[in-house]
Amino acid sequence: MVWQLFAKPLLDVAAQGVKSFAANKAAKNELKLTEIKASKKRMEDVAAGKIAWEQSAVDQMKNSWKDEFWTLIFGGILVACFLPWTQDYVAKGFVFLDENTPSWFSTCLILCISASFGVRGAKGAIGMFKKK
Fold first, then answer.
1. Is 49 among the domain residues?
2. Which domain, by its residues, includes 34?
3. Does some domain include residue 35?
């Protein structure tokens, strides 16, 4: 009987501790779940925005002449490489560009041309030219 007087309060304290521990664990799990849902939503929003931006860029390029312009430029240079009366001019032009073109101009040209042909990102465009 005497032990019941001591045991009941101790059991109540232990039960409260277990309840508190369970509630704390449930709150932590709910917080993790909320963070995961928020991260997923943020990724979905980024993907949706990225897709919307790409679609907008494609729509804007429908009436653009930039890719045709660069295709004609490179096609003209290629044809000039095979015409005997223009080969010296092409060779001298490439030497001149190699020796006298500042790196910032080369980088800008690479970015302009890569954007015209749809290569995304400066790293991708410059990486294409450094793979030798």
1. yes
2. 1-63
3. yes
Residue 34 lies in a domain: yes
Pair 80, 89: CB distance under 8 Å? yes
pLDDT at 47 over 60: yes
Residue 48 half-sphere exposure toward CB, CA atoms < 13 A: 6
Look at the chain and report how many structural domains it folds into: 1
pLDDT digits (tens, 9 = 90+) for 97-111: 889 989 888 888 888
Q: Note whether residue 130 is domain-resident.
A: no
